[in-house]
Amino acid sequence: QVRLVESGGGLAQAGDSLRLSCAASGTVSRADKMGWYRPAPGDQRELIAEITSGGAAVYSPSVKGRFTISGDNIKNTVNLQMNDLKPEDTAIYFCRRVRGSRSDWGPGTQVTVSS
Fold it and tell me: Is pLDDT of 27 > 80?
């Protein structure tokens, strides 16, 4: 069973930086991709950033230029460097790991940004 654990959330002021980390444990093989999501309307989750096993990264337009994703898909770790934080970045951030048709999620880490 794959278990994902996020860390690094917390309180910040507008303009500050935070770094989120996520690691998978259990019997895990190389991830196809790993990424970060946050809640969206309609009980959905919005993609914030994702990185593939080949190192290609995609970002939500709302964070592009401010957030940077990095990780090691062999070790099943992923990080999110969040710079120039804005109050609208306040959310629970979920880590996701994809391998084939399987998708695993972490419990989330809270990020709160005050103005």
Answer: no
